[in-house]
Amino acid sequence: MLCRTIPASNCLFGKFFSVLCALLLVGSHCHVVAAESVVIPVPDYRPPETVQAVAVPAVPNASAINVLIISGQSSYEHDWTGVNTRLRSLMLDSGVFDVRIIEDPRTITLALLKRYDVVFVNYLGRWNYSDKEENRWGREPEQALFDYADTGGGVVIYHASLNMGAPSWPAFERLAGGTMRPLHGSRRSPPDAFMVKIVDHEHPVTQGMREYVWTMNDDMYTNMYWDPQARVRVLATAYDDPSLYTAAIAGPKYPPHLYTPEKLASMSAMAADNPQVWTVEYGSGRVFCVALGHGPDTLLHDGVKSLLLRGTEWAATGNVTVPVGPKAQAFTE
Prior knowledge:
Blueprint: H1 12-27, E1 65-70, H2 80-94, E2 97-102, H3 110-113, E3 118-121, H4 139-150, E4 154-158, H5 170-176, E5 178-179, E6 187-189, E7 194-198, E8 212-215, E9 220-222, E10 225-226, E11 231-240, H6 247-250, H7 261-266, E12 272-282, E13 285-290, H8 302-317
Parallel strand pairs: 1-2, 1-3, 3-4, 4-13
Antiparallel strand pairs: 5-10, 6-9, 7-8, 7-11, 11-12, 12-13
């Protein structure tokens, strides 16, 4: 109605007003990106260096669980090399695993994967989530992973790997059950430290764990896409608290005008418990998925370390012998 109250021919202001109205009308038909879809790119960022001892080869042990970590790339904020070193040390120190790491997934074959009891995926083929091109493995290596799981192999899908194939890779979504879709609704909640709630104490991975464990220097993945046909069992969740999106707490990666109370109220899975750890039944295989584990230091905390080691063992064997860490153990009378 305002556009009709001032004739455009009457004055310079009228002409300006007409142009302004036209722009507003055009803008009203444009696609508006929801706040929950915004990712602030930081392309020049590199993770801080960590100093870690390099694990020496394990003494050959026929009873050890053979783990293959598939890696070689990840997004800008993830120290995938440091994580691999830490994972290898933790697994070898447990006395349960032997570990190998491959950094070129394009060389994978089904015959190679079948030499291992469990395949641990720590890979993402985008430096930035907004990159149009993704360095995928190729049709045959990717199919090898699916066939490996389908025929009884154990698979662990770790942290940033849950972003593979975004916004949609149906075959991977079926394997992982839940996946991140950056720029298409999925979010990273602001807190770098948060409580993780164990919601299933009957599963072998979480038996003996307390109700809440802490994770530090981590990412809370929220509003993930869940494949409706995947057979998912959620083991642990975290609460996406809208009060933590305020500028004083969230910082510059979360511009206040994009996270107003009204916009936060309209976001899916906000003010809700979001799955962080779950399993998937896939053919004859077992899949363990963990959204936790941002960096090498994150893995030192008993809650995350216990979930990772016990989940990897379960994916490989269906049983768990790795003990729960002291600060993750259930309270007893």
